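Moderator note: this is an archived Q&A kept for reference. The question asked for a predicted structure of one protein chain; the sequence and the answer are reproduced below.
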Amino acid sequence: MTLVPFDDRDGCIWLDGRFTPWRDANLHILSHAMHYGSAVFEGERMYDGRIFALEAHTRRLFRSAELLDFEIPFTEEEISTASVETCARNGLSDCYVRPIAWRGTEQLSVSALHTRTHVAIAVWEWPRYFDMARFQRGVRLCWAKYRRPPADAAPTAAKAAGLYMICTISKNAAERAGYDDALMLDGAGAIAETTGANIFFVRDGALYTPAPHCFLDGITRQTVIQLAREAGMRVIETRIEPEQLADFSECFIVGTAAEVTPVGEIADHRFQPGALTFDLVDRYAALVRAHARERQLAPA
């Protein structure tokens, strides 16, 4: 597979209020974020010209910055508008959207009270996260080496760059071992999430999912819970122990990138992607496209 480096692409990136040629959208090597992980970001998807749950993602970006003790120097409306405009400037109507805010170069120490906050928005084409064959049979997960830190040890409600390093380590190890991703536990040994998606299980027609006490209550997670309840499914947010995996018949992960993706295997446990999982796959796909169609059909 030939990878196209992200610093060598055509297009433009919204940077600190201005559209900048893609290759010129750079930051200095001595930026605080580079050394101390002081950055927050979002992952969003545009479908047919509309970013799904845009306002919710923008609100979370600002909340994440607040939790990391810095202030974004734009309004939520300005960031949401810039996100849509960046897609248009790059000629994209179906794409991934990445807003990011970070601390700059004014201080290079643990202290960061006098650093300036920068903001950028980049967009690019985004194919299916997993190929169709793996999707249909269900992706394969192993156990992650690291656990999610408790909420009193890290700002776990923030989508913070620094919290993802243990995810990168775990996903790299999973892929080297032939798996698609890794399932992380919380500090007490209960099931938390994968390296970049929330997880659901099915038993007797009901959905079970870990309560998000030490990881993000994902926007896709919230959407899927709402879709399931609207369809008359019971949704139970609870503590799930690894030894309970044998009790479940189906499993799937959800996230902006993964959307709703069936799971066929977690280490020694096997699942058969079934009707309930694929029903939610279809409901989610219909919802995100319907939101885009609503915009297209709205009167001028």
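Archived answer notes: The chain has a mean pLDDT of 94.
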